[in-house]
Design goal:
Length: 289
């Protein structure tokens, strides 16, 4: 089992490096003639974000790099005479394999998008989003199961897991969720032939529907696992800001929808922050950090 864990960690390292390199080459036009931004401009919709929004990928890959460094450090770090990669939930092969699949799908999407295979791109982006969230949920559950042991190793260790691993993956997953909705909008507008207004309203309504289920679930049944997750609301607010900032003309109805969602997500940031502070004060989880 230890050998298998070690191999999976190395696979995660390889997938991360390949993904970062291919994305960098694709963005500069050195990998494909069509860069992602060129294709996005060609198939613009009411949900296409302004260019600066995509700078979030730099933050995401740096954050994923920090997670990778933490995972690699488990190979050399020891506790009670055992190497931590043998027991740490962050080195669990199952979520790491989902992340490997996620990263492979990530650079697969680059090829599909550059070839303007819009439907296939949307399907792959959905799989990227799903695999990322599955990996994160497994990490949440695995860490909860051994949280007291992790706290005995030091508060900084649990803090790193909560604020770097968990929220780093939340940032990545929230952004790929938005990317899927934008890609879905492209398919609706340029493949299915729906109006630009409908192709924007359908994905936005899907997002609202998911959040209507997620927000109460996150605050109740999932609280013991994901209490310290909060970055998804920042990403959603950032994404709506980028979409709204696009100066391409759009209908007043869609503009209003985007502004309302931007305000809602900003409000959810405040609510989530207050909720975490209140729960830590009145219902501390293990040892509050």
């Amino acid at each position: 089992m230890e050998a298998f864990r070690f191999v999976v960690i190395l696979l995660f390292f390889a997938c991360y490096v390949v993904t970062v390199v291919l994305n960098a080459l694709a963005s500069t036009g050195k990998l494909f003639e069509n860069t992602p931004s060129k294709v996005s401009s060609k198939y613009s919709t009411y949900l296409t974000p302004v260019g600066w929004t995509f700078s979030i990928w730099i933050v995401i890959y740096v954050w994923l790099g920090l997670i990778l460094v933490y995972v690699l450090s488990l190979i050399w770090r020891k506790s009670a005479g055992e190497r931590l990669f043998e027991t740490s939930p962050i080195a669990d092969p199952l979520p790491l394999l989902f992340l490997c699949l996620n990263l492979i799908l990530n650079f697969t999407w680059l090829f599909l998008w550059s070839q303007e295979w819009l439907v296939a791109s949307a399907i792959v982006l959905f799989l990227i989003t799903a695999s990322g969230w599955i990996a994160l949920v497994i990490f949440y559950v695995r860490v909860h199961e051994v949280a007291r042991d992790l706290l005995e190793e030091g508060k900084w260790n649990m803090a790193f897991i909560r604020y770097i691993v968990f929220n780093g993956l939340e940032t990545y997953n929230a952004w790929t969720s938005i990317a899927f909705l934008v890609n879905l909008s492209v398919v609706l507008a340029h493949v299915s032939g729906k109006s630009l207004e409908s192709s924007a309203n359908i994905p936005l309504s899907l997002l609202v529907g998911v959040l209507a289920l997620w927000v109460p679930f996150e605050a109740t049944a999932f609280d013991k696992y994901g209490r310290y997750g909060f970055m998804h609301y920042f990403v959603l607010t950032f994404a709506m800001s980028g979409i709204y900032s696009n100066e391409e003309p759009r209908s007043r109805g869609v503009n209003t929808y985007i502004v309302v969602l931007m305000a809602l997500f900003a409000f959810l940031i405040l609510c989530r922050s207050a909720f975490i502070a209140h729960r830590n004060s009145h219902r501390p989880q293990y040892i509050p950090l």
